[in-house]
Design brief:
two-stranded antiparallel sheet, alpha/beta, 13 helices, 7-stranded mixed β-sheet, globular, 347 residues, disordered N terminus
């Protein structure tokens, strides 16, 4: 039984489950099937149920969702995909685009076997594109080339993809993803929840703020923090506006003069902060993984929730496996398709 402190979280889980039933399309439950692990490098997962469209989905637009594909975060990716399919009324309209540092046949086969009904495409992201541009940050995971793949989405996706949602691999969606995909971007290239109460100055060093030429980039803007783990992107506008090159230019400045401490987030802020379309905060209940150093437990922010995000050092699958979960991790657990290859002994 979960500790007493989890009662409120479990109650929320029940409510979220009821909401899912209200919006989901016709769900066809397949028998749970164990997929045998071909090697020690790829985890084992159950086959997900087949999710089918409701009657209102006929002729509906495709919803493009991009995520990275990496063995270290595969468990989170699988849970995120399942949550999206379970909570949308039109699961067969969702197309997943996965960016992988290498075309690992076993990894891709596991993904397809877990979601045999899923429309998905896998693209190779060449790590050499960013390896020479990455500066050391406060957490090793933030320095991995695949963490920068979101910068190159528009260069990687095919021309027919004109809008895409980018999601980190540590999110759970508990609302219909079509709502996020259809937000009005107006003349902005990116839409995301903004957090203007956050102390924006802490994302950059004194060397940055003391240099008028550098800090002057925010002149004429009211910059606010936004989390790049949940973004709606106008891919056409990103391409025509040369935003990849703009972000790369700030990464080059960082190599010469240390102007920030985090990974791929600050160059996004330098280019886009104060010039994005603000999205309802319910679409990124972020920070559930705690801070970037200790990963201490954090609770939910007040208000409605459409997406839960374990940004920070602590990941729910690690904490659950270690039997040191935070209360919010019980919200992630129902979407976990992972099955250990050896029996787990209960205490």
């Amino acid at each position: 039984m979960p500790p007493a402190g989890c009662v409120a979280v479990i109650a929320l889980l029940v409510l979220l489950g009821d909401a899912a039933t209200a919006v989901a399309g016709i769900r066809v439950d397949a028998a749970a099937m164990m997929i045998r692990q071909p090697s020690d490098s790829v985890p084992t997962f159950r086959e997900a149920p087949a999710f089918r469209n409701g009657a209102e989905c006929a002729g509906g637009d495709k919803v493009n969702v991009a995520m990275t594909l990496d063995a270290n975060y595969l468990r989170g990716t699988m849970a995120g995909v399942l949550s999206i399919l379970q909570h949308t009324a039109c699961p067969e309209n969702v197309v997943f685009h996965f960016l992988a540092a290498r075309m690992d046949g076993e990894l891709i086969a596991m993904l397809r076997a877990t979601f045999p009904y899923l429309e998905l495409r896998v693209y190779r992201f060449d790590p050499s594109r960013v390896r020479g541009r990455i500066s050391r940050s406060i957490r090793h995971a933030l320095d991995q080339p695949l963490n920068y793949a979101r910068i190159y989405l528009a260069d990687t996706l095919p021309p027919d993809v004109r809008r895409v949602i980018y999601l980190d691999s540590d999110v759970i969606v508990v609302d219909d993803i079509r709502t996020l995909f259809s937000v009005e971007l107006a003349d902005h290239v990116v839409g995301a929840p903004e957090y203007c109460h956050a102390n924006f100055t802490t994302y950059f060093t004194d060397a940055f703020w003391n240099d008028p030429e550098l800090s002057g980039t925010f002149n004429g803007r009211r910059p606010c923090y936004f989390n790049t783990g949940v973004m709606v992107m106008d891919v056409d506008r990103w391409r025509t506006g040369g935003y990849t090159r703009r972000v790369e230019r700030w990464m080059a400045v960082q190599k010469q003069k240390r102007i920030y401490h985090l990974g791929s987030l600050p160059p996004f802020l330098l280019v886009l902060a104060g010039d994005i379309q603000a999205v309802d905060h319910r679409w990124n209940q972020h920070g559930l993984g705690g801070d970037n150093v200790k990963g201490r437990c954090r609770g939910l922010h007040p208000g409605p929730i459409s997406l839960l995000h374990w940004s920070g050092k602590g990941k729910p699958w690690h904490r659950l496996d270690a039997r040191r979960p935070c209360s919010v991790d019980y919200l992630w657990a129902p979407y976990d398709l992972y099955r250990p290859t050896s029996p787990v002994l209960e205490e």
